[in-house]
Write a structure and sequence with these properties.
This protein is an all-alpha fold. The chain has 20 helices and no strands. It has one domain. Helices cover 86% and strands 0% of the residues.
């Protein structure tokens, strides 16, 4: 087993590359979202957001979890890697044909016929994502996060360049659609160039069977959680209208842009936890530190943005987008709490306990969809934010699973950081900007003043970066 010092150095190096990549991608994404949303308006943007929400759900399911097998398997043979690519080649084509035929069902449910046409153009990108997943999985297995970050950044730059250019000239949603297709094409080419895998069409049952068993159990649990991405297309669009879907999607997009470092930790988590999972004490300490950092980074950024969202969102997107700033705090609070449990999920996945994560995902999505079904018809897009909060108690299940596996991590610091973020998040819905910021400074100031352990956390992050 590789030494912990060696793993730490490689993770820090790769993590820094991923951070820079995420910063670059966030900047491009913010600019493109600003231009696209401002030009298209809530209704047309709602069609785009609904279509992309369905597409990304289908994309997440397309890999069937086999790429995680490539990351997780201790002794991986070349034949196993080639068999995964062989499986993706043929199944991906069949999957895309079936989805092309089923696209009218999504248009019927959302009551937007444009969704059918958009999805049919996007479907080939699912196959591109499947085949690129093999090379990317192998790069992540070897902790080459620097290369992965670079290729992701280049692919996203290609996407945003095409998307913004076409929207400026054509003023419709087809620019982002063609940009998305180009992104997956560029990523597939770059990843295969960096880590070539021989193309095979013939399946070997003996080799492929254990890969499918592991992958499908992972896929089953993960697929359930990705149903969350269908909440806006299936519930907000259906019960509150396409304009409400556009307003909600911008609030979700803002939370995603602020989740910069959370995405980096998520991207690295399974690969990293797989290296230290044999030591229960190290695992618990890693989770305790990780969820504290997540609570600090997510809670602080979401709380700060929510205080001035009612000024920033209308300023950059236009006055018609103001309602997005009112639902943002609820979505931001839910995201801050769920971020605490990212390493819980990664640890259980790395240990092969996919069923345990699947149980959480069933509970979470069930609560989310049940709450959405009840709340959205009554409160419009506000009901979506309420549903996000009402689904949070399901995370208690993942805590119980982790305790059985390696004992309970220390929740103290993460708990107090979330408590400090909550008053300003809630206050920003009703109170003016200046009062929301006063509440924010008072909450965090009191916490850092009274809790010496919390004061050490920013210093730990700076020290880790300084010692890379």
């Amino acid at each position: 087993m590789r030494s912990l010092a060696s793993i730490k150095n490689k993770v820090l190096k790769g993590g820094i590359y991923l951070v820079f990549r995420q910063i670059l991608a966030t900047l491009f994404s913010l600019v493109s979202t600003l231009v696209i949303a401002r030009i298209l308006g809530p209704e047309t943007y709602g069609i785009l957001a609904t279509s992309l929400g369905i597409f990304y759900f289908l994309k997440w399911g397309g890999r069937l979890g086999l790429h995680i097998y490539l990351v997780r398997k201790p002794d991986l043979s070349t034949e196993e890697v080639e068999q995964v690519l062989s499986f993706y080649n043929t199944i991906g084509i069949i999957f895309c044909i079936l989805l092309w035929c089923a696209s009218p069902l999504f248009g019927w449910w959302t009551q937007q016929e444009e969704v059918t046409q958009v999805l049919r153009w996007l479907i080939p990108a699912i196959w591109l994502d499947m085949i690129s997943g093999v090379s990317i999985g192998m790069l992540e297995r070897e902790l080459h996060f620097d290369r992965v970050g670079l290729y992701d950044a280049l692919a996203q730059i290609a996407n945003y360049s095409v998307s913004v250019s076409l929207v400026l000239f054509q003023k419709n949603y087809w620019g982002p659609i063609f940009g998305t297709i180009l992104q997956f094409f560029v990523l597939a080419c770059l990843s295969h160039y960096s880590y070539p895998v021989a193309w095979r069409w013939r399946w070997r049952r003996k080799t492929l069977k254990p890969i499918l068993v592991y992958g499908l159990t992972y896929y089953s649990s993960n697929w359930i959680f990705t149903l969350k991405s269908l909440t806006v297309p299936l519930f907000v669009t259906r019960f509150a209208g396409i304009e409400a879907a556009g307003l909600t999607s911008i609030a979700i997009r803002m939370v995603q842009q602020l989740s910069l470092l959370r995405v980096v930790i998520q991207r690295m988590s399974i690969s990293v936890m797989a290296k230290v999972i044999e030591d229960a004490n190290v695992t618990r300490r890693t989770i305790s530190k990780g969820m504290t950092y997540q609570a600090l980074l997510m809670g602080t950024t979401c709380a700060t943005f929510s205080c001035c969202a009612s000024w920033i969102i209308p300023l950059v997107f236009g006055e018609k987008w103001l309602p997005s700033s009112q639902i943002f705090p609820l979505i931001g609070l839910a995201a801050s709490v769920s971020a605490i449990f990212d390493l819980h999920n990664a640890t259980l996945y790395a240990a092969g306990k996919n069923y345990e994560v699947g149980r959480l995902n069933v509970a979470y999505v069930s609560l989310l969809w049940m709450s959405s079904w009840l709340m959205i018809p009554l409160f419009g897009f506000w009901g979506y934010g309420m549903a996000q909060i009402l689904a949070l108690p399901s995370y208690f299940l993942i805590h119980l699973s982790l305790v059985k596996f390696c004992g309970s991590p220390n929740y103290g610091n993460a708990f107090w950081l979330i408590i400090a973020a909550t008053p300003s998040l809630i206050a920003s819905i009703w109170f003016p900007i200046w009062l929301s910021f006063i509440i924010l400074f008072f909450s965090y100031g009191s916490l850092f003043l009274l809790n010496s352990k919390i004061r050490k956390i920013p210093l730990e992050l700076l020290t880790a970066l300084g010692n890379r």
